[in-house]
Amino acid sequence: xxxxxxxxxxxxxxxxxxxxxxxxxxxxxxxxxxxxxxxxxxxxxxxxxxxxxxxxxxxxxxxxxxxxxxxxxxxxxxxxxxxxxxxxxxxxxxxxxxxxxxxxxxxxxxxxxxxxxxxxxxxxxxxxxxxxxxxxxxxxxxxxxxxxxxxxxxxxxxxxxxxxxxxxxxxxxxxxxxxxxxxxxxxxxxxxxxxxxxxxxxxxxxxxxxxxxxxxxxxxxxxxxxxxxxxxxxxxxxxxxxxxxxxxxxxxxxxxxxxxxxxxxxxxxxxxxxxxxxxxxxxxxxxxxxxxxxxxxxxxxxxxxxxxxxxxxxxxxxxxxxxxxxxxxxxxxxxxxxxxxxxxxxxxxxxxxxxxxxxxxxxxxxxxxxxxxxxxxxxxxxxxxxxxxxxxxxxxxxxxxxxxxxxxxxxxxxxxxxxxxxxxxxxxxxxxxxxxxxxxxxxxxxxxxxxxxxxxxxxxxxxxxxxxxxxxxxxxxxxxxxxxxxxxxxxxxxxxxxxxxxxxxxxxxxx
Length: 511
Ligand SMILES: [Fe+2]
What we know:
By secondary structure, the protein is mainly beta. Strands 2, 32, 33, 34, 35 and 36 form a 6-stranded antiparallel beta sheet that branches. Strands 12, 13, 14, 15, 16 and 17 form a 6-stranded antiparallel beta sheet that branches. A 5-stranded antiparallel beta sheet has the order 1-7-6-3-37. Fe (ii) ion (FE2) is lined by residues 165, 216, 282-283, 458-460, 477-480.
């Protein structure tokens, strides 16, 4: 791996605002609104260091588009975790793989009185008129992008561990997500939530599990929720008594295989599990049903959970490679109880994106993401054509792109009619730039250069670009802790655990 890539894991502490970034090429005039991204930015507090990429204190980055011009602003997310770290000069809240709570007594207390980090290096979604930021602790936080005032916790999450990748329900305008409830009976609690501010969480299904699996996302078809349990599982008692950071309590047990369970979206009834070979994944790409009742789930898979280990900061900064992810199609035939799998393209692909508004739950043709040859970090943008099973690649010397976000062209009728937006680290210049690519050809359209480096962000944020007069942000991922938000809106909330953060974009980001 090129030594310079470690710059992507170096703390960025300055908060800046630039009214007009230098632009090479032409940013499409139809591209308006903003792209907001959040990601880990501060990896050291006092003399302490975070262990894992997912632990870094979050910073928001906003790119706004107007008439071909691009402005930029950045600001730390003022979470309780950030404020406590700044005030005390030490890491105060337990993160994904960094836990300052060493005493057994304190850990036991924290299980019953969770004081989870609200370091929302999260995903941002727009639910109804609300903007909500999320991560894997249950603290959805709504914020007002106009005033930056906190609007409080957006909703009560029925569990302690959730996913930052809910799905939007195109019929109701609400969302679907799940949370793990730990206890004598461990449950995956799938719940729906309407788009209105006062809507209650409605638990629609609660599959029971003895050993909850680490799952970062799930799939959705017209009729089914697709649950994929990888054999990276935890004994909940270990979370309480092991004294180890959260993720280090999960164990790889390949003998369990990968278990697919289908949950009827209307009745909550479970079908399955349907077991296939063991694998690990963070991100579902898309899912849909075939005419003959099969359920197809496309997932970025790894052979095992070693990728979690590879993302520790020491490994990343030393130039170690990350495992190559495979875009894998699982076809479940419920009547036969079988699961078939095939690799869709040879090029590795992770941090996937689709034209969500058009393609989610439906048969689709195009997916975009990041790629690697397995000898380095992600160094290329990949456009996958799932019809021809071919792919195109964008890469440039010394450049390390972030997750490509698809923005559709207004009036566009083709699934790939639009552009990709990616924040790219240029290690030779030691700066980052916003890259605009044609989504179909990967032809480069423009670069808008930021005056400093931006640390790498996570997988799968919310994707889409708000157009003038509208707010966007379909459900998405993001990832493992990092997020991208796109859109122009009025209120938004960030959440994690029982903490919450409310932001005012105008003051915090736009100003
Ligand atoms: Fe993600």
